[in-house]
TrEMBL record, chain A:
Residues spanning the signal sequence: none
Domain HDOD: 16-211
Protein name: HDOD domain-containing protein
Annotated Gene3D superfamilies: Hypothetical protein af1432
Pfam families (UniProt xref): HDOD
Alphabetical list of InterPro entries matching this protein: HD/PDEase_dom (IPR003607), HDIG_dom (IPR006675), HDOD (IPR013976), RNase_Y/CdgJ (IPR052340)
Automatic annotation (TrEMBL), chain B:
Keyword Hydrolase: yes
Key words of the record: Chemotaxis, Hydrolase
The protein, known as: Probable chemoreceptor glutamine deamidase CheD
Hydrolase found in the keyword field: yes
Organism (species): Eiseniibacteriota bacterium
Purpose: Probably deamidates glutamine residues to glutamate on methyl-accepting chemotaxis receptors (MCPs), playing an important role in chemotaxis.
Length: 283, 158
């Protein structure tokens, strides 16, 4: 197997949009229980693009606020950690994730659509389980497949070898590893590391197809894994890889979920997806 | 003459000149109906087998579920002038992830519910491309009645 650094090079990372220092800092502050809205607002205000996105989101009808707000501080309070996570991630990742991914047969818009779908399905799973998880789950959900951008540019004719392997029953990410030396989950984890995002997020992205192989089991990882499965089954942003993944029955058992629970989430995901897409588009 | 894209949990009918398409069926069911004489037809993209999982959603949008969507599609095609005995009925999708077992077998159950409804109503499937782990895009050309499946860069007529 080729070492990862030979497959994902610094040049690949440069092809992707850099995360702004403010965005990276806000994501960290959002997960710091000691940081308050004032501290978060102070970071955002030095990034004009991010400020504009946060203000627009806080005034978008999707988020359900009637009165207009012009103050950044009240926008931060209004949105709260859950929506701020998603608005901040959209501010630096949406443009790149809305491009088509030729190697994976994903037309323009589909990778982002899948990301938002997994975010919605994760949200519904959290509600159904009645558990409390850190809002960084939305960052993980939105970024879990970002490695496809890197591999999609490199895969070229190798995609036929990957498909030949999946035709023989090998899962798509295992076929990527066999043919390319790494899978899109590992490539995505490299990106998140380069962006200096928290290790927990890196781990969720890294193991989203293989939750049992992660060093630390986590609720967030199991939820994002199953939310991804729901969206693949629904065909939301599904490309050449189709359904060639192996869902974890272990994750279902750990979360004590029944088939009907997963289907209840599936029933709510398409409409929630259209709403959140519109909300994040307005931001 | 319109080209209608049907989303997840959607349904549409049309006449000669129209084209109906639905993208990336995973475990969802894609069902096409076509009356070659009146040249009308329809396409359904249903997510889940049974509406009992969310009866409220089924009332708002019967196309979400196979047990409510299939009868709705037939009725909508009859309204346009389709006649049951002449309808050409084709099914696609109902795929499953690898090692789906009993926990992720929604696609199989979508197919089973479809077959039951058709059987009870004395309707036979004329063609099908179901199961497996590929995503499928289905197009119904209402001028010719041709159903085309695209999957993983390949296209073929069903």
């Amino acid at each position: 197997m080729k070492p990862i650094e030979k497959v994902v090079t610094a040049a690949d990372l440069q092809m992707l949009p850099p995360i702004s220092p403010a965005a990276s800092k806000v994501l960290k502050l959002l997960d710091d229980p000691k940081a308050d809205a004032v501290a978060i607002q102070r970071v955002i205000q030095y990034d004009p693009g991010l400020t504009a996105n946060v203000l627009k989101a806080a005034n978008s009808p999707y988020f359900g606020f009637r009165q207009e707000t012009l103050s950044l501080r009240s926008a931060v309070v209004r949105l709260g950690s859950r929506w701020l996570h998603q608005v901040v991630v959209a501010s630096f990742a949406k443009a790149a994730m809305e491009q088509d991914v030729p190697g994976y047969d994903l037309p323009a818009g589909e990778l982002w659509r899948h990301a938002v779908g997994v975010s919605v399905a994760s949200d519904r799973l959290v509600a159904l389980l009645g558990v409390s998880v850190a809002d960084e789950i939305f960052t993980a959900a939105l970024l879990h497949d970002i490695g496809k951008i890197v591999l999609g540019q490199k895969v070229g004719s190798d995609v036929q070898r990957i498909e030949a392997a999946t035709a023989a029953g090998v899962s798509f990410e295992a076929a990527e590893r066999a043919v390319l030396g790494l899978d899109h989950a590992a490539a995505g984890a490299c990106l998140l590391e380069a962006w200096a995002l928290p290790q927990q997020l890196v781990d969720v992205v890294r193991w989203h197809h293989q939750p049992e192989d992660a060093e630390r089991q986590s609720l967030v990882l199991d939820i994002v894994h199953l939310a991804d499965v729901v969206c693949l089954m629904l065909g939301i942003g599904t490309g050449r890889d189709g359904l060639c993944y192996r869902p974890s029955t272990g994750a279902m058992k750990r979360l004590q979920l029944k088939v009907s629970d997963l289907e209840a989430v599936a029933a709510e995901t398409p409409l929630g997806l259209e709403e959140l897409l519109a909300g994040l588009n307005a931001a | 003459m319109t080209n209608t894209v049907i989303g997840v949990g959607g349904m549409a009918v049309g006449r000669v000149g129209d084209t109906l398409v639905t993208y990336a069926l995973g475990s969802c069911l894609g069902l096409t109906l076509y009356d070659p004489e009146t040249r009308v037809g329809g396409l359904l993209h249903a997510l889940l087998p049974q509406s009992k999982i969310n009866p409220e959603k089924a009332r708002d949008n019967p196309a979400m579920f196979v047990n409510t969507g299939v009868p709705s599609l037939f009725l909508a095609v009859y309204e346009l002038g389709g006649v049951k005995e002449r309808l050409v009925v084709k099914a696609a999708g109902c795929g499953a992830p690898l090692g789906a077992g009993t926990m992720f077998n929604t696609g199989d159950r979508n197919y089973t519910v479809l077959k039951k409804i058709l059987w009870k109503n004395n309707v036979l499937l004329d063609a099908e491309d179901v199961g497996g782990s590929k995503a499928r895009t289905v197009t119904l050309d209402l001028t010719t009645g041709k159903v085309t499946i695209s999957s993983g860069g390949e296209r073929r007529e069903l």
